[in-house]
């Protein structure tokens, strides 16, 4: 069945928004900038996205889809015993030699986080994304370490998310060395080991 024109145009516009942010920095670009980047008319963009908020939310969704697709490819290629390692290796860019590089999207996420401080829709979208990531990691930790209490798995999921996010801000935004990819990745193994050895569930 033929694809609807909206199913083609909307992703093209979102991709133009992505490129405009990469090029012009942290502020969400205007319609004219996006139109130039996508080599399309301002009117076409407005036809498919009535507001900048709509575009920003669509961009959040597109970024999440990219990560989900990459992770699914990695999980399918791995056996069950390595699923957690696949998650963590991917987020610290250790699967690029297997065709699964972590997207270089930190400038775009910076722009969305800045927008989230004043935009409830974008804030809720990102909140939901990172909560889902936390819960997904907690689930994978529970599978790998069934002896660990669920509350410990949830805590670890949260800690891993904030370490990953903070790490990439330091590397991608502030220019710290990518040598820290390995240090940060190894720290997660030690963190998980400390939880499995010492965690006491709350009453």
Description:
- The protein has 203 residues and is an all-alpha fold.
- It folds into two domains: 1-50, Arc Repressor Mutant, subunit A (Orthogonal Bundle); 56-198, Tetracycline Repressor, domain 2 (Orthogonal Bundle).
- It is built from nine helices and no strands.
- It has helices at 5-24, 31-38, 42-48, 52-77, 83-91, 106-116, 120-144, 150-173, 180-198.
- Helix 1 (5-24) packs across helix 2 (31-38), helix 4 (52-77) packs across helix 5 (83-91) and helix 8 runs antiparallel to helix 9 (180-198).
- The protein is elongated.
How is this fold's topology laid out?
Blueprint: H1 5-24, H2 31-38, H3 42-48, H4 52-77, H5 83-91, H6 106-116, H7 120-144, H8 150-173, H9 180-198
Helix pairs in contact: 1-2, 1-4, 4-5, 4-7, 6-7, 7-8, 8-9
Keywords, separated by commas or semicolons:
Tetracycline Repressor, domain 2, single chain, Arc Repressor Mutant, subunit A, 9 helices, 203 residues, elongated, mainly alpha
Give the ordered list of helices and strands. HHHHHHHHH
- Tell me the number of strands: 0
> What proportion strand?
under 5%
Largest sheet: none
- Can you tell me the residue ranges where pLDDT is under 50 for at least 5 consecutive residues? none
Radius of gyration of CA atoms, rounded to a whole number: 19 Å
What is the SS-derived class?
Answer: mainly alpha
CATH superfamily of the largest domain: Tetracycline Repressor, domain 2
- By CATH reckoning, the class of the largest domain would read Mainly Alpha
- Mean pLDDT across every amino acid position: 89
Q: What is the number of helices?
A: 9
Shape: elongated
Distance between the termini: 56 Å
Helix content range of the residues, please?
over 70%
Look up the CATH topology of the largest domain.
Tetracycline Repressor, domain 2
Return the CATH architecture of the largest domain. Orthogonal Bundle
- What's the structural domain tally? 2
